[in-house]
Every structure is written in C-alpha cells, then in structure tokens.
Amino acid sequence: LAEKMHRDRMNSIEHLRIIFYSIIKIPEKQALKLEKADILEMAVMFLRQKACSRANLIFARGFSQCLHEMLRHVSLHAHLPPRDQEEIKHFYVLQRIIMRLGSMLPNHSHLVYRSLKRTSSRNRVALWRPW
C-alpha cells in the first residue's frame, strides 16, 4: 500500500512535468534535467502567479467599473466645456482597452511564464532540500 502511494505521487510529479513542458515549451533535453523539487517549485510559483494575476484582473475590472460609473455620472450631471468632454471620452476609451487586455491575460501562458521568470529571479528564495 505504501509503495502504491509512493508510485502515485511520483506519477503525479511526472504529470506536472508534462503539463509544464506543454505550457512553457521547454526543449526536451532541458526537460529531462529538472529534478522533482524543481518541478514542485515551478508548480508553487505558477499557482502563486495565477492567484496574483486573477486578483489583479478582479481589481482592474472593479476599478474600470467604478471609473465608468463616475464618468457617466459626471457627464450626465455637469455641464462641461468641450475640452473636459474630450478628456472624459479619453477615459472611456482607456476603460475599454483595460477591459480587453484584462480578459486576454489569462489566455496567454507565455505572458504568465515571462512574468513568472521575472518574479522568480527577483524573489529567489533558497529552496530547502533535505540533502
């Protein structure tokens, strides 16, 4: 029973390795050199990045919605000069761009990987290994 559980865990790590290689597109020669601890470390970093990007997306959507409501209120209840009206239109355009970019981010794994590499190089903490 213990041996079966051990094999299942090893197979799970192998499945993680395959998933990461399909997402990140690492050449097969480099893929074989990664240790199990490296694969698990990549999984943790990926999940942290995913949670962070999801939080950023939620924040951007909330900010965009707030901006939209504020601009609508200002444009309805204030008599603004043409220059200010142009600035409000500019904010509407920016809001649409933010919404489009926010909806695109989760689908671009190469952006996540690039960001993941930057994060890992900046916040490099020594990985504890028992040997």
TrEMBL record:
Domain of life: Eukaryota
GO biological process: regulation of DNA-templated transcription
Domain Orange: 59-91
GO molecular function: DNA binding; protein dimerization activity
InterPro entries: HLH_DNA-bd_sf, Orange_dom
Protein name as catalogued: Hairy-related 2 isoform X1
Taxonomic lineage of the native organism: Eukaryota, Metazoa, Chordata, Craniata, Vertebrata
